[in-house]
Amino acid sequence: MPVRTISVIITNYNYEQYVGIAIDSVIAQTRQADEIIVIDDGSSDRSRERITSYGDRVKAVFQKNTGYKIAKGSLILYLDADDLLYPNALELVERSYKPGTAKVQFDLDVIDEFGNSAGRRFCNFSAGMSAEDTSRAFAATGTYLWPVTSGNAYAREFLSRVMPFTPPESHDGVLNTIAPLYGQVATIAQSLGQYRIHSQNISRSNADGRSANIPHFARRIGIRKQEFDILRQHAAKLGAKLPDGDLLDSELVFTNYRLMARKLNDEHGNDSQRPLWDLWSTGVSCIFHDPITFRARMKHLMWITCLALAPRQLARQMISLRFNRTQVRAAHHAPVRTASPEA
């Protein structure tokens, strides 16, 4: 079924300083969104005032809601209120969609809390990455490379088969994990928006919701294991075959997390029984199998090797710097409203 309509759902909680930027970025699209839904789950700041100032240009929902039942689009993009889209994002997403696609994904430029470029992309996809490449990777490993929430546009046909559900943490984690079971994943190896890193990102939050300079790796690993349990449940229901073994060993992010958890003595379950060299070699394998650029491969290889060799105290300092480098850079830049799309 061709794309007839596109819905953009902006999710907000206490992001009064950012939500207007996100809304403006959707309004400015070269291919206009057919509807813009802004969901605010009880913000205590001035978010409501900012959202309602757009009048009927957006559909405002002030309650806990995924937005899926409200949205009417045949493609649905969830945009975090602290992120934004470049003007051609929806146009290129629409071009990349074809029948049988579960989702379209794309790169995002990383920015700091003030909108200054951090000089890197997420996920940094390699050029020419095809839906067939992703399908082969998923068949071999049970996983694939995918971006954060704002870098995905989901087909309604896919969502209608799996929603609603209760995720271990966020809906996008489960949706991205199971998407290849329900259709192809199209990838645009180009930045179509900006992903903002700051102290309030969900990946920086502990179980009590408080922000932390270093993520609680054991908790994040546990959540990912639950998402893979859900993947196996869907595969069993569909009669699809998944690889045996620990699927986290095929994800570069989580081989990194396991190595960092070892250095911080913060491991999940029986992970502590694995030799350090095994964690390192598993990470190396992921580096050379992921569809990322050569430069990104070399950076990842240098990082995990130095981390594996570093004494524990030095490793802690390295990890702290890695997860706070955007904030450190931000401290040396004057605040600006947003970074240039050419960043």
Word description of this protein:
Strands 1, 2, 3, 4, 5, 6, 7, 8 and 9 form a nine-stranded mixed β-sheet that branches. The radius of gyration is 20 Å and the shape is globular. With 343 residues, the chain is an alpha/beta fold. The longest helix is centred in the middle third of the chain and has 22 residues, at 217-238. The model is unreliable at 336-343 (pLDDT under 50). The chain has two domains: 1-92, Spore Coat Polysaccharide Biosynthesis Protein SpsA, Chain A (Alpha-Beta Complex), CATH 3.90.550; 98-343, no CATH class. The protein contains eleven helices and nine strands.
How is this fold's topology laid out?
Blueprint: E1 6-12, H1 16-27, E2 35-40, H2 47-52, E3 59-61, E4 75-80, E5 84-85, H3 89-96, E6 101-111, E7 117-122, H4 131-141, E8 152-155, H5 156-162, H6 171-182, E9 184-196, H7 217-238, H8 252-263, H9 276-289, H10 294-309, H11 312-330
Parallel strand pairs: 1-2, 1-4, 2-3, 6-9
Antiparallel strand pairs: 4-8, 5-9, 6-7, 6-8
